[in-house]
Specification:
alpha/beta, Rossmann fold, 11 helices
């Protein structure tokens, strides 16, 4: 527990040195950081071509550039208490081999790599900038030996995982139901998966890249309820824990 508390304290103090990592990785001065982070959410939203986008993966692979990092960094800096609660949750369940799917700027992967209960983390993100940034952060924090960086689950060369972390990702996928079916296939009988979702484009279309189609959402919840049983946890956040239905 003492180690877990130190990890949470470090995150709450400085988000694992996030601002320093941003400046060093992107070769920017401190005076330029505020500009990089300012209006990050709307800057990212303005990049989205709307209905013209044929494949959601194209947006995150080829279009977003470093604006996705800016958006995620702003969220993790301004919402540290909420993010810290998600870290508490994964401390409760994470063990052995961990798949962090769509890991973004790496907060959860880095925290898991710091945990003595985790043997190895497989960080999967389709965006090369994200992968490179988190790999840089892992080296700076001294946990790079415990993380493998991959573009896809297939690249991990792992058949099963003890823990799956998939946060703030499912609402970005064209078919989130299919993705949780894949998760079900690669979980062990005693594995735990941590999921959340936000199937909403926002009051002012600030999340144009989120899925909000009623049929897709219904398929997602039907698939979720057919394959997983929710595991209670007492932390008051939107993220939920699941095990496979045997």
């Amino acid at each position: 527990m003492e180690k877990d508390n130190l990890i949470l304290k470090e995150f709450l103090d400085n988000a694992f040195n996030l601002k320093s990592h941003l400046m060093e990785f992107f070769s920017m001065k401190e005076c330029d950081l505020d500009g990089f982070l300012a209006n990050a959410k709307m800057n990212l939203a303005n990049l989205h071509p709307g209905e013209a986008l044929s494949d959601v993966s194209d947006f995150y692979t080829d279009i977003v550039g470093d604006r996705h990092v800016a958006d995620l960094a702003t969220w993790h800096i301004t919402s540290k208490d909420y993010i810290a609660d998600t870290l508490k949750l994964q401390q409760r369940f994470s063990k052995n081999t961990v798949l962090d799917f769509g890991g973004g700027i790496g907060t959860h992967a880095l925290a898991n790599a710091m945990s003595t209960r985790v043997e190895h983390v497989f960080f999967v993100d389709i965006n090369k900038t994200n992968r490179n940034f988190v790999e840089y952060r892992a080296r700076e924090l001294g946990v790079d030996k415990k993380i493998t960086f991959c573009q896809s689950i297939k690249d991990t060369k792992m058949s099963k995982f003890d823990t799956i972390v998939c946060l703030d990702v499912l609402e970005h996928l064209a078919d989130p139901a299919s993705q949780i079916e894949i998760f079900n296939e690669i979980m062990k009988s005693n594995s735990i998966a941590l999921f959340n979702w936000y199937f909403y484009k926002g009051e002012k279309n600030e999340y144009p890249f989120h899925i909000d189609d009623d049929q897709i959402i219904e398929k997602f919840f039907t698939t979720l309820q057919s394959n997983f049983l929710e595991v209670f946890h007492p932390i008051l956040i939107t993220t939920r824990a699941y095990k496979r239905i045997r």
